[in-house]
Design a protein that fits this description.
two-stranded antiparallel sheet; 7 strands; 29% helix; globular
Amino acid sequence: MNRVGIGYDVHPLVEGRKLFLGGIELAHDKGLEGHSDADVLIHALADAVLGALGAGDIGHHFPNTDERWRGVSSLVFLEQIRGLLAERGAVLENVDASVIAEAPKIAPHLEKMKAKIGTALGISPARVNLKATTNEKLGFAGRGEGIAAMAVACVTLPEGS
């Protein structure tokens, strides 16, 4: 049985933090505020895969009230979710995501992000599709106040799941 999940995340940009997107650090004058590394791309992907599994959301599995997740690389979340996939006998077919940000330029880093995400999820980077777009200077993302990401994931579950 094939199932699809969606994910969305947004975090504000603040001074004094490093910027992590897609599991890599990007040079920028601000970083994303959050309990972990606040990687909105990874968080959206995590929610998409968890949704496809029917396993809740990132806040349920990795709550911001749990100190063990403070400052952790969000790639750890994908590695944990990889374990959930294996426990349920599920196959992650593919993920697709878009990052919405005015700056920094993300497109030059997409291949490296795909490799990191693929490794964390245990799939070929060819099954990871990433895109970047601006918000045409509109809204919080357009004003450079934050970065958003949305994602979908397709999972094949054993019959009867």
